[in-house]
Amino acid sequence: MDSLINAAGRALAAGDPLSALKLVALREDPPALALRGIAMAQLGDLPRAKALLQRAVKAFGANEPLSRARCVVAEAEVALATRDLGWPVQALEAARRVLHDHADHLNASHARYLQIRRLLLIGQLDEAQALLAELDPAPLAPALRAVHELLTAGIALRQVQAHKARAALVRAALAAQQAGIAALSAEIEHAGQILEAPAARLSRGDQAQPVKLEQVQALFASSTLVVDACRYSVRGAGMTLALATRPVLFSLLQMLAQAWPEDVSREALIAKAFRLKLSDESHRARLRVEIGRLRSALQPLARIVATARGFALVAADVALLTLPVEDKHAALLALLADGEAWSSSALALALGSSQRQVQRALESLATTDRVQSFGVGRARRWTTPPVPGFATILLLPMSLGNG
Known about the structure:
Number of strands: 11
CATH superfamily of the largest domain: Tetratricopeptide repeat domain
Order of helices and strands: HHHHHHHHHHHEEHEEEHEHHEEEHHHEE
CATH class of the largest domain: Mainly Alpha
């Protein structure tokens, strides 16, 4: 490996893509193509980066498996940055194994972190947490230690563990300072801002106020019955009841929680939950059936009693959590906020809407990057990007030219 390649690699590791490009911009050999691809990714030109990395993979050939594996890892990070979640994960895992077998532990760890990031993006928290627990960040370079702590914070944020997320971000900031990479420090600062931003709107009777994630965490730990319209669930007494697949029940419960401790009329409940006007006894009968199902589901968290004009929720204390801002797609965003990857058909079922209506709403939200999808056809899934962004740290080591 020549001195220019070596110097360009050091510049990229330090987060200085412009200096790296000055050294290899006119070269077409495989190591230079790979380094140019990484530099373009760090500069934000992801399509160009992808093309260069693909050329590098082909140019290295089968006789240089280690160099090819490093390029595949870099290509995977570009795919994640562009939310190409359908990118072949088997290729990344194969590259990670090659790196591990060749004792390139730095890039093998980086590949694993990319796998974890993808799992977070599609809402597979348990798998992401299990893989993260297998990694020891202590012997890693400062940049990767910062990424490890960012992932820890991302998982904690999704699990409404604000204190754990804050501690992880403190460790991440220290590691980023040691790495001296400005983009990484900026990402950590952005993640910290999420902790200070309103996470939801809390309503108790006639009172409503925005609340931060730490306040939501404290509320979940209290004895209050929490009707969570952000995740379509209800919490209380250390229990969580998911109602995302039972939209009628949740709609009734949300109205009762919003009116608590007062009751809600039968007419209002039928209009909201069934989208009908109370016109005959069949509507009343249907309401009684659904209220009976809701009573059964809520045991032993709360009771529902009949009143002269309707029904009321009975509990010592009730709080309603909704999205922090009003939005015509709020119900759709609330479902996606659980971090899972949803199909449009499942969203339509939960919302009580037609699949085509949901698809149009998703396409509208996607144009402003508020939702993202992966897969095609029936395998297409939709998610929101709740996890903090990560600095593009494409770690191609100095020994790029050695196969």
